[in-house]
From TrEMBL:
Regions that span the bilayer: none
Claim: Oxidoreductase is one of the keywords in the record: yes
An MF annotation (GO) of this entry: monooxygenase activity
Protein's name according to its UniProt entry: Ubiquinone biosynthesis monooxygenase UbiB
Record keywords: Monooxygenase, Oxidoreductase, Ubiquinone
Cell membrane recorded as keyword: no
Pfam families given in the database record: ABC1
ABC1 atypical kinase-like domain location: 66-159
Length: 167
């Protein structure tokens, strides 16, 4: 089987990362590495998962898991985020019941269930991951810098012209 250029690039990039998942196949290691790198990289992996023309099935299948199987952050942190957003008041002020276990988790936020104290209505609350904005900004700056190298590395990359960001 011929290994495509994008896969060779990823393989080289992963070589430099600490290999915490040696017992996992390459696709799983790539997925786990992207999860550890953070939300922008998870989004990048989600995008790559739709490009089955670039990766063999065993890699694309693992990347597809980034669509709906991202590790959640602690429910207590979510509760703290809600309390901060609600003026520092405890969640019990607003909810009769709040589940610290997330209903779903994604790269940028996760969802928790609760019951409103005011009328007993069941609701879901989307909570953005703590301290995510500086991480996203730093990652986007890095991606912009990497994108500026693409034309130097790949002949087809010359048609790409990254806009914005800073050098």
């Amino acid at each position: 089987m011929r290994i495509t250029l994008p896969l060779r690039i990823w393989r080289r990039m992963l070589f430099w990362m600490p290999n915490r998942h040696q017992d996992q196949p390459l696709g799983a290691r790539l997925r786990l590495a992207l999860q550890e790198l953070g939300p922008v990289w998870i989004k990048f992996g989600q995008m790559l998962s739709t490009r089955r023309d670039l990766f063999p099935p065993h890699i694309a299948d693992q990347l597809a898991l980034l669509q709906d199987r991202v590790a959640p952050f602690e429910g207590k942190l979510a509760q703290q985020q809600i309390e901060k957003a609600m003026g520092g008041l405890p969640v019990e002020t607003w909810f009769d019941d709040f589940s610290v276990e997330p209903l779903a988790s994604a790269s940028i936020a996760q969802v928790h269930t609760a019951r409103l104290k005011e009328n007993g209505k069941e609701v879901v609350i989307k909570v953005i991951r703590p301290d995510i904005l500086p991480i996203i900004k730093a990652d986007m700056k890095l991606i912009y810098r990497l994108a500026r190298w693409v034309p130097r590395l790949l002949p087809d990359g010359r048609r790409l012209r990254p806009q914005g960001g800073s050098s």
